[in-house]
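> example.struct
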């Protein structure tokens, strides 16, 4: 005696998983889209930003931990706006130049 049609059960599970994924990741996708649309500026991953700055991922992570450069955390992912990072680097460079005089 079979209580459930296996195909119906499979479809029910798929639907439940799909709905849960929309709940869990749908908001993150909305946030990511909003960030990308903000001034149409492209968001960079850690690897891309390290390449842009010509530094290692270890150095980039260290700068993040020390609060030297701004970044966005969306879920478990990290993103950067190049313009913000460059602005901070320019300001730090100017400040270090003034302190060195």
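> example.seq
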């Amino acid at each position: 005696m079979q209580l459930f049609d296996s195909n119906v059960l499979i479809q029910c599970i798929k639907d439940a998983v799909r709905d849960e994924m929309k709940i869990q990741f749908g908001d993150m996708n909305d946030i990511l889209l909003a960030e990308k649309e903000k001034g149409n500026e492209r968001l960079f991953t850690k690897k891309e930003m390290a390449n842009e700055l010509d530094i290692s991922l270890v150095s980039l992570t260290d700068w993040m931990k020390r609060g030297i450069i701004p970044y966005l955390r969306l879920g478990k992912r990290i993103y950067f706006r190049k313009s913000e990072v460059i602005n901070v680097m320019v300001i730090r460079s100017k400040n270090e130049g003034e302190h060195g005089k």
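> remarks
The first strand starts at residue 43 and ends at 44.
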